[in-house]
Amino acid sequence: MRGSISAADLDDAVASLAALGGDLPSKALAHALNHTANQANQALVAEIDDVFDRPTSFTRNAIRILHATAKRLEASLWVKDEKDNNSKAQAPEDWVAPQVFGGPRVDKASERNLRSKGILPKGMFIVPAEGARLDQYGNMSRGQMIQILSGLGALEYVAGATQNATQSARSLAKGHAQAFFVMKRGKRPIGIGERRGENLVMVLAFVRQPQYRERFRFFDVVRRIAEDDALLEANIEKALALAMQSKA
Predict the structure, then answer these.
(1) pLDDT value, residue 248
(2) Residues 20 and 112 both lie in one domain
(3) What is the pLDDT of residue 69?
(4) Exposed, middle or buried, 159 (CB in 10 Å: 0-12/13-18/19+)?
(5) Which of 15, 138, 166, 178 is paired with 79 by a 20 to 30 Å CA distance?
């Protein structure tokens, strides 16, 4: 998923740069393209703020820019497709792409963990239920999710040691191993419940794979900026002025 910005159709502006001679034209044009790419990035962040409900800073910073150089006169923007080496979280593209193209949501690490333990039925996904604690972005609290997975014995091994709840005195004092259980309607699992004393709530509901509609207009936004000749020409003029100052 990538959008590109070049000055291939701006013959007059490019011709005016050629008068500088040497490598200044290419450097100035690269500067103009990069400034335009930064403007496209700002427009994409504004689009993210518009279409996502309380997007996290991780989502707002999901756009990466490959800047133009004097030898490669094209700038590109895309949604990051690599994971954080220090995290098992999804790559930004994994959850942004369905918002661009539409289609099914990919599974999360927590869902894979629950399936591997036979807790979450095949083809089912999890969503917060009435007992879920949500963070400021409307997502389930990471701390509560860890409690649930730990209590159900569904946390992955980390650095050779499991973080699942055990029968130790300390673990029993927390009560997670006894608190969380699979709720069923008849024989069909419907979610994860939490029982603390007399209080019983559902914290996770099992649902069919969520489907997203197209709503993040990534390509439209980049195309709008890339095809705005007046904007790109203005950026070239600014780059030309800077180049002339540096030449003087």
Answers:
(1) 55
(2) no
(3) 93
(4) exposed
(5) 138
**Residue keyed to tokens 């997670």:** 176
Instruction: Kindly give, in sequence order, each residue whose CB lies less than 8 Å from that of residue 72, ignoring residues fewer than 6 positions away.
Output: none
Q: Considering only CA atoms, which of 81, 39, 34 is closest in space to residue 62? A: 81
| DSSP state letter for 102 | -
* Residue among 72, 11, 31, 18 at smallest CA distance from 239: 31
Instruction: List the one residue out of 232, 211, 228, 209 whose CA is nearest residue 220.
Output: 228
Neighbours of 158 (CB within 10 A): 9
Residue pair 58/45 in contact by the 8 Å Cβ criterion? no
Q: Would you say 239 and 23 are in contact if contact means Cβ atoms under 8 Å apart?
A: no
Question: Residue 119 contacts by C-beta under 8 Å, 6 or more apart in sequence?
Answer: 152, 154, 182, 189, 192
Residue 237 lies in a domain: yes
Contact 20, 236 (CB under 8 A): no
Q: Determine, yes or no, domain membership for 78.
A: yes
Residue numbers of the domain that contains 133: 106-209
Average pLDDT for runs of 10 along the chain of length 248: 76 66 80 94 94 86 92 92 61 84 88 93 95 89 91 68 51 68 95 93 96 91 91 86 70
Place of tokens 């995290």: 87
What's residue 78's pLDDT? Answer: 92
Q: Give Cα 188 to chain centroid, integer Å.
A: 33
What pLDDT is stored for residue 246 in this prediction?
Answer: 67
